[in-house]
Amino acid sequence: MHYVAIAAQPLDVQALYEKLKAPQFGGIVTFVGTVRQWTDDVETQSLEYSAYTEMAIKEMTKLAVAIEAKGANVVIVHRVGHLALTEEAVFVGVAAAHRGEAFKWCEYLIDTVKKQVPIWKKEFDTDKVRWGGPQ
Known about the structure:
The protein is an alpha+beta fold. Helix content is about 30%, strand content about 40%.
């Protein structure tokens, strides 16, 4: 059973991980994206995420259902709002029968979420504010 959400509050990574567990799965792979201080030579102070929530949930659900149909369990949660350095911005987890599938599908999901899901990042750097990070 998949779980997808847009969250305004800090992510409870342990609780999200627990949603992936089931006796039929032998491997769980998670990706947790956090707010980092440096992107190349640009220093970040904080990030602000916004989303077209209805569409984001719809797109994340489509992704989760597609992977679930392959016999896996999926959790995708993305934060919105203002995030400080080191805060968790996104959690993607996949539980599968074997580690190979779990790794492959987790990487596919985070890459696809970043490309397809209508979530926008506003970066507050030491020198200016940028949409989507350094250009």
